[in-house]
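Training component of the fellowship. As part of building independent skills, the fellow (R.M.) carried out the full modelling exercise for a liganded target. The chosen ligand was S-adenosyl-L-homocysteine. The inputs are recorded below so that the supervisory panel can assess the work.
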Amino acid sequence: MKKNSKRVFAILIIFTLNVSQGCFTQTSNNMSYEDQRKEMVLTQIKMRGVDDEKVTDAMLEVPRHEFVIDQYKGHAYDDSPLPIGYEQTISQPYIVAYMTEKLDLSRKDRVLEIGTGSGYQAAVLAKLCDSVFTIEIIEPLGVRAMETFAKLDYNNIYTRIGDGHKGWPEKAPFDAIIVTCAPTDIPKPLEKQLAEGGRMIIPVGERWTQKLYLLRKEKGKLKQKAVLPVQFVPMIDEEGKTY
Ligand code: SAH
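Fellow's submitted model of the complex:
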């Protein structure tokens, strides 16, 4: 019994030390957000092979810390995903850059995103294309993302609360579709809503064994290849059941 209470005490001290050393505060180092962003783009993105300048410029521009909850602002430019509440995460910067590059966007493209989350991925896409249509199933997350888009003056992002498995048929077809939650099969409505010549990037699989697939629609048929092993949160329906 005594031993146990000592252990609890020790854990508490470690936790307190972590907090006071800034692990959970806004000042994990002294660099400005802009400098942290430059370092992120160089060491986490370019050095790992994402070198499309349009994509790296967009990642330099978008203030990732504005999409991160207060508790984690000091970690906004870390090489990792971060919690955003409601058991969801903002993706690791490298994954955002990698998926964006694979979509091979041009200025006139209209893009559909499933899984708005923090809104960060949508904001990066919005720098590179005509318009982004993004769907989030957890209402408070979608609302928070809309507020962030408004605060930062994004006027080419359209957000909807609902089940993205169905896509956004009224706005289809899309030149590119990006899915940031994982179903176990590629949703048929999304295949249908992809334009001829369009690209889709989507994680598919069970919780711990997902692969990222890149698809392209050519002459009405989808060509697909697996490009990376990944771990995304599952795609869920309105009852919270996984697809
Ligand atoms: N792109 C996000 C990362 C989102 S994490 C960002 O940049 O921050 C995946 C998100 O997908 C979560 O917010 C989750 O709620 C959402 N999601 C899961 N199933 C969904 C569905 N069927 N339709 C829309 N969003 C869904």
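The panel noted the following from the submitted structure. Helices lie at 2-20, 33-45, 53-61, 93-102, 120-126, 139-151, 188-193. The chain has one domain: 3-230.
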